Write a sequence for this structure.
């Protein structure tokens, strides 16, 4: 790393250091930086617990929630990751998979030194989906100055088998005035190749994944009469979540023409409509909407909207189409929702 003197047309090299050399610690330094500014990890995260103690007396470094409601276990190592940090984090994530929404609200209330109602309100405002979807999946983020080759190899293998695990390198540098700089660097998956890597991983998992329903996932379509179907759709649109207006815009895209819409086409239209700051984020929002379509609790949506793909939880979907029989009903309810929201 170099510091640039623009006016003087000079650059000066920053000296790489170890956290040990600088006398900096995992718990009292790195952990505090990340808890205060989680964006250093390259995404929007809500830290809900710090030094959370498990029944085994082991303490989690940081516990967070991402925008889609996934739980994120963040494990820190000061300099060298060691050769088994990924296994340690997997054990933590497996235990955390049992946390309920009420558990996470309680943890966050303790972290805020507030009450559970305020904690619940802040989490609900942060996530794009609904609180009932909280902790449907778990992710792991490993942070260290350097990663042991065994860890990197294990992480790449785990990702092939559907474990969402990321390695982030935090490297400290010092300039000639002894000012400290931290350079965060996502090394797995490489940001430049993330889309390619995720498509490749999805393809590999699709080839290995059984097509049976898993957890809250379902492909079973509803068989409701028209009145019940309309009532169920009204309830979905009436939910006070940030997902609701995005779902309405998604329906408007499908209503714009009587045909099926490709995934990439929907992403482009979401982005054009301001649903996402870039097409990558618009794609993640579409993934949230697609997950809504394959929940056990939403067979009415699968009765109304057809799509291809999605044979297993998390599989990409395509060719979204509103059944002709229900287009008028959907159009009417969307119009009513927009009138009520204006």
């Amino acid at each position: 790393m170099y510091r640039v003197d623009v006016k003087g047309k000079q650059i000066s090299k920053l000296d790489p250091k170890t956290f040990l050399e600088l006398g900096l610690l995992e718990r009292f330094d790195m952990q505090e930086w990340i808890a205060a500014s989680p964006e250093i990890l390259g995404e929007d995260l809500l830290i809900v617990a710090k030094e959370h103690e498990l029944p085994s007396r082991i303490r989690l470094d940081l516990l967070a929630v991402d925008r889609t409601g996934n739980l994120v276990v963040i494990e820190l190592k000061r300099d060298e990751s060691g050769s088994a940090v990924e296994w340690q984090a997997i054990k933590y994530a497996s235990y955390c998979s049992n946390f309920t929404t009420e558990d996470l609200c309680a943890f966050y209330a303790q972290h805020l030194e507030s009450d559970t109602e305020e904690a619940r309100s802040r989490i609900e405002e942060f996530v794009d989906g609904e609180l009932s979807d909280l902790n449907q999946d778990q992710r792991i983020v490993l942070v260290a100055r350097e990663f042991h080759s065994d860890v990197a190899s294990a992480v790449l293998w785990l990702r092939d088998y559907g474990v969402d695990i990321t390695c982030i390198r935090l490297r400290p540098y010092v300039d000639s005035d002894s000012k400290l700089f931290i350079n965060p660097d996502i090394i797995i998956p490489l940001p430049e190749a993330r889309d390619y890597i995720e498509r490749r991983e999805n393809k590999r998992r699709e080839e290995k994944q059984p097509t049976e329903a898993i957890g809250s996932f379902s492909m079973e379509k509803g068989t409701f009469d028209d009145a019940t179907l309309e009532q169920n759709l009204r309830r979905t649109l009436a939910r006070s979540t940030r997902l609701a207006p995005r779902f309405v815009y998604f329906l408007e895209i499908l209503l714009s023409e009587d045909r099926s819409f490709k995934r990439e086409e929907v992403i482009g239209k979401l982005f054009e409509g301001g649903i996402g700051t870039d097409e990558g984020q618009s794609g993640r929002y579409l993934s949230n909407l697609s997950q809504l379509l394959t929940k056990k609790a939403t067979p009415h949506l699968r009765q109304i909207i057809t799509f291809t793909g999605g044979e297993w939880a998390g599989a990409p979907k395509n060719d979204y189409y509103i059944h002709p029989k229900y287009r008028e009903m959907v159009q009417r309810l969307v119009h009513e929702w927009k009138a009520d929201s204006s």
